[in-house]
Amino acid sequence: MDQFLLIALNGLTLAGVYFLVASGLTLIFGLMRVITMAHGTSYLLGGYLGYVIARETGNWFLGAIGGAILVGLLGLLIHQVLIRRFQDDDMRVALITLGVSLIGTDLMLAVFGGTATQVPVPGDVQVASVSIPFIGPYPLLRLLVLLIAVVVGVALTLFITRTRFGSVVRAGVDDSQMTAATGVNVRVVFAIIFVLGSALAGLAGVVGGTLFPLLPGQDGVYLLYSLVVVIVGGMGSITGAAIGAVLVGLVSQFSLVYAPTYSLVLTFALMVVVLAVRPQGIMGRAV
Amino acid sequence: MSELFAPKRTGVARWLPWALGGAVILVAVLFPFLVDRPRFWLPNIGVRTIWLGIIAMSLVFLNRYVGLLSLAQVTVAGVSAYGVGVMMVTFEQPFVLAALVGLVAGTLAGFLIALIAARTKAIYFLMITLAIGQVFYSWASQAIEVTNARRGLAPVLKPDFGFLNLNDITSFYYFVLVIGILCYVLCRYAASSTFGLTLQGVRDSPDRMRALGYNVNAYRIAATTFAAFIASVGGIVLVLDRAQVDPDVVSLGSTLDVLVVAVIGGVGSLGGVFAGALVLTLLSNFAQNLTDRYMTLTGLVFIIVLLFAPAGLAGIGKQVKGLIARRRTPRHDAPQQDPSADQSAEHAITEGKQQ
Hints:
The structure holds 2 protein chains of 2 kinds. Chain A is mainly alpha-helical. Chain A has helices spanning 2-32, 39-57, 60-83, 90-112, 123-127, 140-162, 164-174, 176-181, 186-211, 218-233, 238-258, 263-277; strands at 129-132, 136-139. Chain A has a domain at 17-216. Chain A has 12 helices and 2 strands; from the N terminus they run αααααββααααααα. In chain B, α3 runs antiparallel to α4, α8 (194-204) crosses α10 and α14 (312-328) packs antiparallel against α15. The longest helix of chain B has 29 residues, at 38-66. At the A-B interface, α4, α10 and α12 of A face α5, α11 and α13 of B.
């Protein structure tokens, strides 16, 4: 029972990281109907940038904010130069961003090398643990990651449902042409959302890079996981991304313990089951 | 957009494709005698170009005639290569039997992928096939008892049929060339058969085809399975060429390689893939002399092609013609001047997107 709860908690904290990555992807898709395949690249780049900043300044929060902002700015550049012209051509956007990820992987390997790094945190946080009933001592760091994910998730939901800009975004999701006709500059909204989505991936990279090693290949892994999360949860839904992330996190942790070789295969089986029952994902709207 | 409604080709347009095809085959046949170091050129450029082309051709077939862009074709080729590897290395069976098992395994894998993915469309299909490919990669690099994990299965020896010894590099090259041409002919035949025409109908208007009584999903699955067969053939050539099969064969990098080949060659052109494959193999062999960042260079070429020549090398002729036509004719009757020329290039990727 103890072990069961421990694995469940591990799954939830892992889900926190998955949610942070996938929320950016689902946000961008929800509004713009394009998929950015460079999302894993944004994750890894954010992690590396956060690592450099945190190492130089000794401040984890500066690293997290810096990683998010810098990756967001890069997202703005990519959106303006490569994506904006092909707004209505989702296939070409997917392919172009795949090309971006190809370049990103190579350049990051050149700059940051092939060895694993981890975003540094103050020593006492690194080793601190909290006592949780039925489980015993549990690393504080993992709980903090979960907390960050929950805070970001709640903030995003409030931002989308309670603010004026959020209502513009929702209107854009429903019908971007009608929204433009009412005088909203949809192009600016698109750009802001793309930057926000990229910045979320960058933040996720710093947070994930604190728990897990950053190394070449992780960009592909996190692209895959965020795709699976949004397919399972439903494209374009923040709540869906949260549900998807929790399911994927739990399945991958439990299978790691009970059937290690088939961890990814089982995660994938989850996706197949969801697709078979609900092709649009759990919270997705039928297309 | 489909050939059905294309206007009758006249003059240059009619014989040019044949002349071009003939010239390409002639160069390919004479290739071993044209190069200075056949021992380098034949395996590294010739054979690799052909199997990359075959796998990319299966992708292009699906995109052009079914409107599905699949990133799992490399995975299918990898399943087929692993089939050969397991039979020849683990069970020590002869090549012919192993090749049959590989073909069946790859085609079956394609069928299963189609069962899962055919329920989805366009961008979803792309994402799901990418996910399936990555899952297979992860499994292949871990399942030590089947795939020997990261070390892979080796050696896969080239067979000696007596009358044809594939260990001789020139014979091997011609053997592969014949396979490549057969695959191309098979794809062209499938595309122009009733089956292919039905597929284009399904692509252009699934609802009408359904109303006419066609089982749209079954056609999509059948086409994906056919493309998987072509990719499996490519996988068998691949495993013979590499003499081993390891997870790198199905990695994200290999998937992107094939995608790059298809896009550079032109995702609407079955023959163009070989031009794209040639560009990629030349880049990968010679760019290393210029720069360490070969992947970056490939990525840049890929993006530039997508930005400026979305129909790839195969579409460049049309694009140039469109440009010249626009220059020559006065503005007011420009719309009558073959507007499809640059438009079709612009929409090459989404041309077949399902409604």
